[in-house]
Amino acid sequence: MSPDETRPSLRRRGRRWLARYMPASLRGRFVLIMIVGVLSAQLASYALWSAQARSSQNAQLDEMAGSLAYSISSTVRFFRSLPYEYRHIVLEQLRDMGGTRFFVSVNEHRIPVLDIGQGERKAMVVERVRAVLRHELGIQDALVEFSSPDTLRVFNNEVLLRDLPPRWGRHTLLMGPVSPPILVIQMPLEDTAWLYVATTLPMGIDERSWLSADRLFVLFVVLVTVLGLSFWVIRSVTRPLARLARAARQLGDSLQAVPLSERGPREVAASAQAFNRMQERIHSQIKERERLFSAISHDLKTPITRLRLRAEMLDDAVQRERFCASLDELDTLVKGALASVKGLDLDERPAVVDVRELLVALAQELEVQGGKISVHGDAARLRVKPLSLKRCLANLLENAIFHGGRAEVTLQRGRKTLDIVIRDNGPGIPDDQLERVFAPFVRLEPSRSRDTGGSGLGLSIARHIAHAHGAELMLANHPSGGLVVTLRFSGHALES
Fold first, then answer.
1. 308-355, pLDDT tens digit by residue?
2. Banded model confidence at residue 200, pLDDT cuts 50, 70, 90
C-alpha cells in the first residue's frame, strides 16, 4: 500500500476511534477537552517549574557544599597547627562550651560509617567537598560520607551520637525528631590519628520526585476549580442548544409549542430565530393544506351530486350503472384524500394512553362487523396523540379483519421499546411488494381484492402517523401464513 493510500486509512481509523470513545453529548466533549487541556497545561508548567527549581537547588547546594568545605579546611588547619598534647584540651573546652558548627573529634582509627543516600545531588556534594580539600589541604584520601543520626558513631569506642551528653554538641547535629543526614569527613592527621568532622547541610540530598504529594494536591485543587467553573460556563452555553434539540423533537408532536427564546449569544439567537420562523411556516402550510382540501371537498360535492342526478335520468340501464359506479369511485377517492389529511393532523396535543385498553376497545367495535380480534400481553403507557394513534391502529386492524377474517394482537414490552404485533390469517403480501403497499392509493391484486372497497390509503396513513410519533411500522409474512404487522415505539413516547 502506498503512503497516499495509508494516510486516508489512518485518518478513518482515527475518526472511528474518536467516535467510539468520545462522549456523545457536546457538553461531555467540552468537559473532556477542558480536562485534557488543563491537565496538559498543569503537567507542562510543573515540568518546567521543576526543571528550573532543580537547577536552582543544585546550584545552591553546590555553593553551600563549597562554603562548608572551606570551613572544614580552616578547622583542619587549626587542629593541624595544635601540638598533639593540646588537641584533646581544646576539644574538651569546645564541648563544654556547647560545640561549634562542627562536631570534631580525634580518633585512633577510622570510625565505620553506614553510608546512606544516592543520586546526583549526593555525588555532587561529595565531589565538591573532596575537590576543595584537595585544593586547600592537598588531601587525596579524605573519606566523605553521609550517615543517619540514629547510626552515627563518633569516638574510638564507637559510641552513638544520641548517647552523648546534650552539651557536647548534640544540638548542632540533631535537629528535632526528624534530622537531616549528617555529612561525615574523616582524614588522617598522623600515622595513628584520624580527624573526624561531622556537620549537617541546611539542604537535603534526596532526589525528590517533581510531582510530589503536595504538588499533586495543588494540581487537583486547580483542576477541580477550573473544571467546576468551566462546566458551569459550558452548561450555560449548551443549554440553548439542548432547548433547540428538544423543540425540534417536539415539533413532530405539536405545532402549538411555545416559540424559543431568541436571547443569548449571536449564533444561538440566530438559530432560535430560524427555528421559530420554520415552525411558523410549517404551521401556515399545514393550515393552508387543510383549507385547500376542505375547499376541494366542498367544491366537488356539488358537481358530483349533479352528475349523479343526471345519471339517474339516463334511459340506458347499463350506461346508468357504469356512470354511477364511476361517480362512486370518484367520491371514494375524494373522501380518502380528506381522510388522509385529517389522519396526519399535527395540531392534536399528546396525552398519555393505555395501549391495551385502546386495542380492547377497537376489538369490541370491530367484532360488531364480524371480525374476531384477540389481545395478548401487557404494555407500557404511551404519550401519543390519541385520535391519531386510534386511527393508525384501526386501519391496521381493519386490514387484518377484511383480508384475514381474524387478527391476533400481541404486546411485547422491552427495556426501551414497545412492539404492537398484529397477525392476520390472510394470504399475505409478496415479498417484493412489502414496501410498495405503503404508497398512497396502491391496492394489490389478487392478494388484496377491490371487493373490500378500500382506497389504498390505510397503510400509508398508518405509517405517516407512526413516523409522526417517532415509531416504526414494519411488514413481514409469517412462515405459517398470514401477514405480520409490527408497530414499534421507543424513546420519549414511552412512559416510565
1. 787 778 778 878 788 787 777 777 667 666 665 655 554 567 788 888
2. confident
CB 170 within 8 A of CB 162: yes
Residue 418 CA to residue 412 CA, distance in Å, equals: 6
Report residue 410 as a C-alpha cell: 400481541
DSSP codes, 331-380: HHHHHHHHHHHHHT-S-SPPEEE-HHHHHHHHHHHHHTTT-EEEEES---
Cis check: omega of the bond before 430, within 30 degrees of 0: no
Do domains 266-343 and 351-493 share one topology? The answer is no
- The radius of gyration computed from the CA coordinates of the chain, to the nearest angstrom, equals 48
Which residues share a beta bridge with 487?
420, 473
Architecture of domain 266-343: Orthogonal Bundle (1.10)
Output the average pLDDT for the chain.
76
Measured in degrees and rounded to the nearest 5, phi and psi for residue 147 equal -130, 155
- The sign of the CA dihedral 327, 332, 335, 338 is negative
Model confidence pLDDT, tens digit, residues 102-146? 777 788 888 888 888 777 888 888 888 889 888 888 888 788 888
Is the per-residue pLDDT at 482 higher than 80?
A: yes
From CA 101, how far away is CA 105, in angstroms rounded?
13
3-state secondary structure of 172: helix
Question: Which residues are CB-contacts of 172 (< 8 A; sequence separation ≥ 6)?
Answer: 99, 100, 101, 102, 103, 199, 200
Q: Which CATH superfamily is domain 351-493 in?
A: Histidine kinase-like ATPase, C-terminal domain (3.30.565.10)
Integer Cα distance of 180 and 149 in angstroms = 8
Show me where the domains of the chain are located: 17-245, 266-343, 351-493
Identify the CA nearest to 103 among candidates 207, 179, 190, 206: 179
Taken as a whole, the chain contains a residue count of: 496
pLDDT of 371: 76
Scanning the structure block, which residue is given the C-alpha cell 474518536?
A: 18
User: Which residues, 6 or more positions from 256, have their beta carbon under 8 angstroms from its beta carbon?
Assistant: 347, 349
Q: Which residues pair with 352 in a beta bridge?
A: 383
Largest separation between any pair of C-alpha atoms in the chain: 162
Alpha-carbon span 280 to 256, nearest angstrom: 10
Output phi, psi for 489, to 5 deg: -105, 145
Cell 554538641 found at: 169
CB-based contacts of 343, cutoff 8 Å, min separation 6? 388, 391, 392, 461, 464, 465
Band of pLDDT at residue 492, cut at 50, 70 and 90: low
Alpha carbon distance 125, 200 (integer Å): 12
| Low-confidence winner among 53-57, 70-74, 163-167, 246-250 (lowest mean pLDDT) | 163-167
